[in-house]
């Protein structure tokens, strides 16, 4: 392990990501897949009275 400290390490995934041929988790699509978004309030201890989902 100590032989790697302070040394440059060539990253193997760079070529795929830079050329656009890499696959990201956000690119994966599956049948019946659902997505969720979690949003944090900008107001501490606030009461949610409604959510606009448009």
Keywords:
54 residues; little secondary structure
Topology:
Layout: H1 14-19
Structure notes:
- This protein is low in regular secondary structure and 54 residues long.
- The protein has one domain.
- The chain has one helix and no strands.
- The mean pLDDT is 84.
The rounded distance between the terminal residues' Cα atoms is: 52 Å
Tell me the series of helices and strands, N- to C-terminal.
H
Stretches where pLDDT is under 50 for at least 5 consecutive residues are none
What is the number of independent domains?
1
> Sheet with the most strands?
none
Number of strands: 0
- The percent range for strand residues is under 5%
**What is the overall number of helices?**
1
Task: Give a concise summary.
The chain is largely without helices or strands and 54 residues long.
């Amino acid at each position: 392990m100590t032989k790697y400290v302070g040394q440059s390490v060539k990253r193997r995934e760079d070529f795929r990501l830079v050329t656009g041929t890499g696959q990201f988790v956000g690119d994966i699509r599956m049948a019946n897949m659902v997505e969720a978004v979690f949003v944090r309030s900008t107001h501490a201890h606030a009461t949610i009275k409604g959510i606009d989902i448009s």
